[in-house]
């Protein structure tokens, strides 16, 4: 009997608290050592950790077991995210697990599921989202990257931008135009493109904090097998909504657990700096405490909806909007609280906690832009949650 099978048998027989204790013990006994500084070593270190999770049956809490997941009930998915955040183990590389995986599980062929899901879970394949374009970010149906069918292949030409983890990705899940520009949503197809295929060029983009999290990607007569299309030709838009909804839902649960830990660390920092009794500091910390609880409750509501209906629905935009504003405010407050020490960058011997709060402040400036701007989230909430009239400035849908 494999370690993964033993884990599944234990899952079926224990209580939630017994599951928490067993997971915590596994993480304590198997968590990887110190994070390497060399970028290539860091990638290998992260992949090895996720292979360990899969091989021992501790990966994919919401995934069906047939694809290597745990198929946990709702209460244990919450526990899982809490313990992962508490253990501070490395998260998955790329953006595949929470976004394209639910789309493949729902719309993919048996051959596609077999070929992509388990390697994605193990980290053997790093996935990257290719949605945004220079003139099609917030207005996604305006995308211009084309795919022309020739026999059993598509020929893809165009450009994507702001591709998270693009420089280290093996596979892009992209939207391409197979219909006319005027067709907008009705002329979009969902393609999986091999990053190493001839004609693919990736250029890393330097971000505000000095890293290269994002990249721009160019497709020049890239040939993609028709078998790598998910869903029907020109029928990609419903898949987009599935992917984006799961992206926001998965982010809500993961970030709710992560920010619970980070807020505790911020309170500890206030104590260390001797300002925890300051009334203004206490008021802000209380506000953050209330908001992190609301984020968690809303994440639970969304996950519960997925388990009931199979889709996250438009309420995932509520979580996205809450989290992005929260993380910007929290890091801005942390930098303010540190005073002059707050602007010392990571790498300096003088940096407080290796400059993590300034790093967070800089990186979260983009939070209200990525994965749909705050304005897009507000439109979605207004039109699809509150049922207010559609924006008259937008084309008919």
If you had to describe this structure to a student in words, what would you say it looks like?
There is one protein chain. Helix 7 packs antiparallel against helix 8 and helix 8 packs antiparallel against helix 9. The chain is 47% helix and 14% strand. Strand 6 and strand 7 form a beta hairpin. With 397 residues, it is an alpha+beta fold. It starts with a helix and ends in a 12-residue tail after the last helix. It is globular. The mean pLDDT is 86. The strands form 2 sheets. The chain has a 4-stranded mixed beta sheet. The chain has a 4-stranded antiparallel beta sheet with strand order 2-3-7-6, with no helix packed on it. The protein has 11 helices and 8 strands.
Offer a concise description of the structure:
With about 400 residues, the protein is α+β, with helices and mostly antiparallel strands.
- The H-and-E topology, N to C, reads as HHHHHHEEEEEEEEHHHHH
**Sheet with most strands: strand arrangement:** 1-4-5-8
Mean pLDDT: 86
Main structural class: alpha+beta
End-to-end C-alpha gap? 53 Å
Q: What form results from the Cα inertia axes?
A: globular
